[in-house]
Amino acid sequence: MKYNFDEIASRRDTYSLKWDVKENELPMWVADMDFICPHFIKEAIEKRMNIRAYGYSNIPDSFFDSIISWWKSNHDIEFKKEDMIYSSGIVAAISSMVRKLTCVGENVLLQSPTYNIFYNSIYNNGRNIISNDLVYENGKYHIDFMDLEEKLSNPQTTLMILCNPHNPIGKIWSKEELRKIGELCNKYNVTVISDEIHCDIVDPDKNYVPFASVNEVNKEISITCIASSKTFNLAGLQSACLVVSNKILHHKVWRGLNTDEVAEPNFFSMEANIAAFTKGYEYVKELREYIYQNKMLVRDFIKRELPLLHLVPSEATYLLWIDVSKYHTDSVTLVKYIKEKTGLILSDGLEYGENGRYFVRMNVGTSKSVVLDGLNRLKIALDAIGEKENYEEN
């Protein structure tokens, strides 16, 4: 490999959200990778740093051009520059769109378990959360389309937030599934926000399908949310892009982002993004392979050492969704116990919805040595409690 993913950045005592932990603790929770930033991004940031004055920035055409080229080459969809809008972050953009595209008291539909911050963007803005719960059956997930249609048909449901690929279950939605979602949302006049920021981190033999690429209907009723934040671990530079083909919808989104003041670039983010999306092809190819090997490491370890766990099959993201129901019926309590016992920090599944209560989420966007350390800590904790009946009796 050209890139050394066994080497990770030391971020203790650097104000890191992930690594601001005690010395004996190992954070494997938040969606933040530990790998060293590739040299071409570092050089782009240094070029900006050497200007030695860090004022306001414009958004150059080359920012949008780099995204257009990347998605055309990697995901077989060609965005138009006039459809693209800059935002300082996906979460900020989603919150703005919830405010501007819906009214107080209307329903915003999710598919639980799903990214926990989506709930905040809805609840904090006075809208109702409604869930088309994903069906967990035989260790895998699928969509209940009858339930989806019933909830979309409610006149109070005006917006759907889709996670594609899905966080936390790691599923890539098929073209047919996305077509059905688009068909139903169009039938009931529901706008789709498609969060696609995990799209590049897929297994080596897999490809994700952009929601807007399926057909004209999907393109006209949706906003596509994209960013370098997950692929290149640049979340701290706060940069994102929205693609909205429908002109009326485009204007509403654009006005919302500007009136909410979340449409100005970070001084360093432009050069970093342009470098990522113009020079990052080989890096991402190797990254995908490394993360896949980490997933296989976890799969094999669980099968061999912790057979009471079930690792939900993952096709995308560096986040693993693990069924812990044979140990405990409340992942919040279990995650707390694991942290106290071993220092390993995981995400409890309840954060992602009520139907995530029996799961934990593990981040394997790190070196193999860290993954092994985390797995060994997990084994120590779970071996100490045994099956859930033993734990609950004690």
Description:
It is a single chain. This protein is α/β, with parallel strands linked by helices and 394 residues long. The protein has 2 domains: 26-37 and 281-393, Aspartate Aminotransferase, domain 1, CATH 3.90.1150; 43-279, Type I PLP-dependent aspartate aminotransferase-like (Major domain) (Aspartate Aminotransferase, domain 2, 3-Layer(aba) Sandwich), CATH 3.40.640. Helix content is 40%, strand content 14%. It is built from 13 helices and 15 strands. The strands form 4 sheets. A 7-stranded mixed sheet has the order 2-10-9-8-7-3-4, sandwiched between helices. Strands 11-12-15-14 form a 4-stranded antiparallel sheet. Strand 5 (135-137) and strand 6 (140-142) form a beta hairpin. Helix 1 (39-49) runs antiparallel to helix 9 and helix 3 packs across helix 8. The model has no long low-confidence stretch (mean pLDDT 96).
